[in-house]
Amino acid sequence: MSEVKISLFPIPGSVSLPFDKISLHVFEPRYRKMILDSIESKRRVGIAHTQKMIGESKVKPNRSKEEILNSNHESYLAQKVFSAGFAEIIETLPDGRMLVEITTDNRYEISEVKQAIPYQIVICRTFQDKPEPPVQQLRAELEQILQNIGAETSEDLKKYLQSKTWLQLSDFEYSFKIYSLVPFDPNSMQKVLELKSIAARISFLIDILTRGTLQ
Fold first, then answer.
1. Which domain CATH number covers 25?
2. Where are the beta strands (DSSP E) in the chain?
3. pLDDT of 16-29, one tens digit each?
């Protein structure tokens, strides 16, 4: 399995799945540098939920805007599995802040920390699903549940579930994109991110929608 270098951006409560488009407001000096370096080096940026804080902010209370923009803040230990993609700067504001978009392309798992400061660069392997048989029956079951929910709550949702864009998703894409329709807390989404089969991700959502409980 090939390895790849990824710039790591730990953000508490932020879990991205493959095929997500993430909008970021980047203001810390280290992460502005990370974005610029990553674009120049054609290196992916990983957006990772966190396990815990490992370094407190040294910025004083009642800090000025200038202090905020010229200081690094809390540091976090990232979850080992996350999604990543290539960054695009949408706008750089006069004070240096960046509006950035990242479209994630896959899941990755950290195998080694290559650089720790000023920002982390990690060596990763792609986090792959296990081989499995087709999941048409599971997908049809979930589709019916979603159609029923859409019929009861939103005509727009119902139309989206019947759209060509939705129906032509591959099973792999489908197993992640369905979670954009139902809000979950970050720890539950991290569990989804780490499930290693299409069937497991679809079954997890079916169970939640039919039983109303998280496993």
1. 2.30.130.40
2. 3-10, 21-26, 44-48, 50-55, 75-78, 81-92, 98-115, 120-126
3. 999 999 999 999 99
